UniProtKB/TrEMBL annotation:
It comes from Urocynchramus pylzowi. This is SPTN4 protein. The lineage of its organism: Eukaryota, Metazoa, Chordata, Craniata, Vertebrata. InterPro entries: Spectrin/alpha-actinin, Spectrin_repeat. Keywords: Actin-binding, Repeat. It comes from the Eukaryota. The gene is Sptbn4. One of its GO terms (molecular function) is actin binding.
Length: 365
């Protein structure tokens, strides 16, 4: 009882299945597109949530951060902040990509734009606020760094001035000509250093004016600057006084050295004059007379040295030198001995003159 199927029925069946398959493919493609759009949407929201979480975390960190208590801690915080700025730059690039994704989703108009736009606006505002807070914190760190650098440089300057004050206020002026010269050379080098530091002291107020108001208006820092200026003034003043004291000490030691040399000469001539017997023979008298002519030249030279000593002594006494009494006593002793030699010379010359007159008289007779 088999009867073959009508070919038209077969064709209709095939066409129907083909149409159903095409419809299914359309539905599948549509579904895939909707799922892909949904995935992009939720990926966008997830990335935005992650960005918000990251922003909240950094806001808490910035809110809890201080600016440090000294130069070392500020520099450590500054280095950490630089690291955070690098993270901020990377996160900014990621957020920019996420915003582009949101703009593409909005362009497709597959979903309601209200939630997407609201989320983008909210995150943008929070990001802008984060950058403002980051900039403010960076400025505070820079202000703190400038302040603590200023304080550290001021402390170093004070320490140097205190050490220098101890040096220039020393009561060691040497014990002889050589040691006084050595101390004076060292002191002149210190004076040069003091002069070189003058510019640093004078620039303190300019540096203070460049600090942030919260730092430069502090009473302590203003007092500190005044103290440094006063300390520098004291150091410079004492340095000038020590220069004069060393020069006076050197003058005293040189005067003593000159006095000693003159007294050695006086001792020698005094002994020679006291022991010398005026000869009676004419030839011997002429020899002694020639020696006195040489002695006159030596005495002129020594007299010049003694006059220089007297001049130095007068300058020291007029300047109120603490050793004025000792210097004056030394001067008086030298002048006294010199006068004694002059008297002996005049006496011996007078004796020689008498002997010469007698010899000449005898020769004439």
């Amino acid at each position: 009882g088999y009867q073959p199927c009508d070919p038209q029925i077969i064709c209709n069946r095939v066409n129907h299945v083909q149409t159903c398959l095409e419809e299914l493919e359309e539905l599948a493609a549509k579904r895939r597109k909707e799922l892909e759009d949904s995935r992009q949407l939720w990926t966008f929201f997830q990335e935005m949530e992650e960005a918000e979480a990251w922003i909240r975390e950094k806001e808490k960190i910035l809110a809890a951060k201080t600016c440090g208590r000294d130069l070392s801690s500020v520099m450590t915080l500054t280095n950490k902040h630089k690291t955070m700025l690098g993270e901020l730059g990377n996160r900014r690039a990621l957020l920019h990509q996420t915003m582009k994704k949101g703009e593409k989703i909005l362009a497709k108009k597959s979903f309601s734009s209200v939630g997407i736009q609201e989320k983008m606006r909210e995150v943008c505002l929070r990001w802008k606020k984060l950058e403002e807070v980051t900039g403010l914190h960076q400025q505070r760190l820079e202000d703190a760094l400038n302040f603590f650098q200023f304080s550290a440089e001021t402390d170093d300057l004070v320490a140097w001035l205190q050490d220098t004050y101890r040096i220039v206020s020393s009561d060691d002026f040497g014990h002889d000509d050589y040691s006084s010269q050595a101390l004076l050379r060292k002191h002149r080098a210190v004076v040069d250093e003091v002069e070189k530091h003058r510019a640093a002291v004078l620039s303190l107020r300019k540096q203070l004016a460049l600090l942030a108001p919260d730092h430069r208006q502090g009473v302590d820092v203003q007092i500190r600057v005044v103290e440094v200026e006063q300390l520098y003034g004291e150091v410079a003043e004492v340095a000038v006084l020590r220069t004069q004291w060393l020069q006076d000490a050197l003058a005293v030691y040189r005067m003593f050295s000159e006095v000693h040399a003159c007294e050695v000469w006086v001792d020698e001539k005094e002994q020679w004059l006291e022991k010398m017997e005026v000869p009676e023979e004419l030839d011997e008298v002429e020899v002694v007379q020639h020696r006195f002519e040489s002695l006159d030249q030596e005495m002129n030279s020594v007299m010049g040295r003694i006059l220089d000593v007297n001049q130095v002594v007068q300058q020291l006494v007029d300047g109120g030198h603490p050793s004025s009494d000792e210097v004056r006593s030394c001067q008086d002793h030298l002048n006294s001995r010199w006068n004694r030699v002059v008297e002996l010379v005049e006496s011996k010359k007078s004796q020689l003159s008498s002997v010469l007159k007698i010899q000449n008289f005898l020769l004439e007779c």
